[in-house]
Amino acid sequence: MVLVDRFREDLKKSDAESRMTNQKLQQRLKEQFQKAMGGTPSWADSSLRKKEEGDEEEDDEDTEILRKTGNYVGTSTSLPKGIIKLKKCLNANNEKPGEDRLTTVQFHPSAQVIMTAGLDHSISLFQVDGKSNPKIQSIHLEKFPVNKACFSANGEQVVATGMRNKLFYIYDMMEGKVLPVPSVQGLNEQRVKEFEVSPDNEFLLLTGSSGFLHLMTMKTKEVVRSMKLNGNVCATAFTADGGKVFAHSEEGEVYVWDVRSSKCLNRFVDDGCVRGTSLAVSREGLYVACGSQSGVVNIYSQKACLQDPAPKPLKAVMNLLTPATSLRFNPTSEILAIASRAADEATRLVHIPSFTVFSNFPMFRRKTIYRAHCLDFSPNSGFYSVANNKGHAVLFRLLHYKDF
Fold this sequence. Notes:
There is one protein chain. By secondary structure, the chain is mostly beta strands. About 10% of the residues lie in helices and about 35% in strands. It is built from five helices and 29 strands. The strands form seven sheets. It has a five-stranded antiparallel beta sheet with strand order 1-6-5-4-3. A four-stranded antiparallel beta sheet has the order 2-29-28-27, with no helix packed on it. Strands 7-8-9-10 form a four-stranded antiparallel beta sheet, with no helix packed on it. The protein is globular and about 60 Å long.
């Protein structure tokens, strides 16, 4: 059951609205989200930005960075290695922190919006301006701690899976409706926790047990084909065109499948990996990153992964000392964010193509990130966020990138 009463109060415009019908609630949600989708946020308005920056008290390091680069304008076309110019912002979900560990943070594919979800049974949307990050809306899923939530490729829906069974929810943000999907035709699994949305918005790739992967159509909610690897699946990713699927097994093997035919195109052992833990594919089709239990992250050429039966890593990143549980390339394929949820501050930003770690991140003497459970970059790399075990979506402004 979905509890809407918990956020009806947030959507009232006056005390006169003592009762709000479902129809009125849906309309109000639609208005709020559409408002967030359009208009110019304060971070993009130069006059507002200048005023706000003048009012802020910056620390010495931030002031020096801003004096040299400006707050939002990059100084070169390619990202330099060594030192990354960034600024810590107010937490993205400051207006509604999670009451338990966050499992998801994700930027909307086209709007200045970020989503958080977690074990407190909630999914929340915030408008990202880097200053106040106002909450747009929040929903509560009764008895449903969220394992993962993800925007659809067109940005109009959110798919959310839980921890315990195969029930999942689809939240239509434009209509303000939350639709339970209690069963999927052709899916013979006791529970579904992990999934990926295809870039063309046609499929959900559901991770099953015993090495099975299932392709479910978004339109009919039925499994149309399944694939199987040896062992158990630890992570999956679509290629940017949606035509192929990469899957990393706990046994340290990487499989590549063709989505349309379900044919296995290649299979190889992740170099030196005893137990696989994570996987990421870059948007531009250049790289594949594989994380392991030892903390090593191997970065491969995606072309080599498609053709070579035993590809060698371009680089083995060894800066994590605990399992590499989260990996994310930025949209320009100039940064690979890596993290381990097993230790505080165990996250790094890797410069590409030099494959060197930025020396000033994490950049604070006191703990800021804590245990990272999910990572994401905004559509044009202007912001980077880390969801942690404290219920916070820690937010950074990457000053090299001028757009959101």
